[in-house]
Amino acid sequence: MKARIGIALGSGVARGWGHIGVLRVLESEGIVPDLVCGTSIGALIGAVHLGSGTQELEGWALKLTKARMSRLFDFDFGQGGIIAGRRILRIFHPTLLEAAIDQLAKPFVAVATDLNTGHEVWLSEGSVIDAVRASYAIPGLFPPVARDGRWLVDGALVNPVPVSVCRAMGAELTIAVNLNADVFGPAPAGEDALDLEQRDVAEGGAEGGFIRAYFRRRNGAPSTFGVLARSLHIVQDRISRARLAGDPPDVMIAPRLGHVGYLEFHRAAECIAAGEAAARLALPRIREAMWRLGNGAAAWNRHARSRGAHAPAESG
């Protein structure tokens, strides 16, 4: 009997490229999740993985530079954020732009936050792109997304690593990918890195001046965005610690990515490699959990004793 596997892909902005490395290793080992739940960048990678595969996205990510990334940011004030997010949709395969969640290869849930109530919202039907955009709508950066009479923002505010969602969806074995598991310390040097020098909007005018100030450090102090990003990181760190302690996954995969800043999307190769390395370290634990759940507790106890491991006595 095969255990039903769910994977919870956590938030982390640019560190999200690490999910690609994790998924690649699992797939190469024949470990294919039966359902995917994602928060923020985890929702984006999860949807692409199920809708068109990550190979094309990976190729695009590996060619990114700071300048190319800045050109994907279409600055637009007055909509609840400073980046409209229309250009970012170019990274999605055209078929995914029109797809509904129930057309994906496996069950999928994106986690968002209701801006009015603070409630956690699980998006498991309707437009894939709308669900993903809501899940990664970082407050102060991207505008909230209107859906079913609610304004939705980044799901990392309430559930950064959605283990609980996997379990509620029927996963018997839950694998979590936590991109923010490094020991909390000083902000990475590139946390607010964004190259605006070639952008027309940054060359003059009131809006251009504001945008430059928003992303640029001055006199050694963090930028406005840096303060916002760091504050959100603190919130996510505390929430994820509490939630994972109360409802831990069966297996945790934790790529070492604390040195990567939130906007350093040009460091895809490093993040993917870190994801692969962390996934390979976790493979023995995943296989062990699959064996245990697939063969039953009694068989697992016999198996553990045969290996000299301490195991509780069989009941009944």
Give structural notes.
The protein has 316 residues and is of the alpha/beta class. Helices cover 40% and strands 12% of the residues. Strands 1, 2, 3, 4, 5, 6, 7 and 8 form an eight-stranded mixed beta sheet that branches. β1, α1 and β2 form a beta-alpha-beta unit. The radius of gyration is 20 Å and the shape is globular. The C terminus is likely disordered.
Write the layout of secondary structure elements.
Blueprint: E1 5-9, H1 17-28, E2 35-39, H2 41-51, H3 55-62, H4 66-71, H5 94-97, E3 108-114, E4 120-123, H6 128-135, E5 145-147, E6 150-154, H7 163-168, E7 173-177, H8 205-215, H9 224-246, E8 251-253, H10 268-295, H11 297-306
Parallel strand pairs: 1-2, 1-7, 2-3, 7-8
Antiparallel strand pairs: 3-4, 3-6, 5-6
Helix pairs in contact: 1-2, 1-10, 2-6, 10-11
Largest sheet: 8 strands, mixed
Query: What share of the residues does DSSP label as strand, in percent?
Result: 5-15%
Radius of gyration: 20 Å
Give the count of helical stretches: 11
**How many runs of DSSP E, i.e. beta strands?**
8
The arrangement of helices and strands along the chain is EHEHHHHEEHEEHEHHEHH
Entry keywords:
alpha/beta; eight-stranded mixed beta sheet; 11 helices; disordered C terminus
Summarize the structure.
With 316 residues, the chain is α/β, with parallel strands linked by helices.
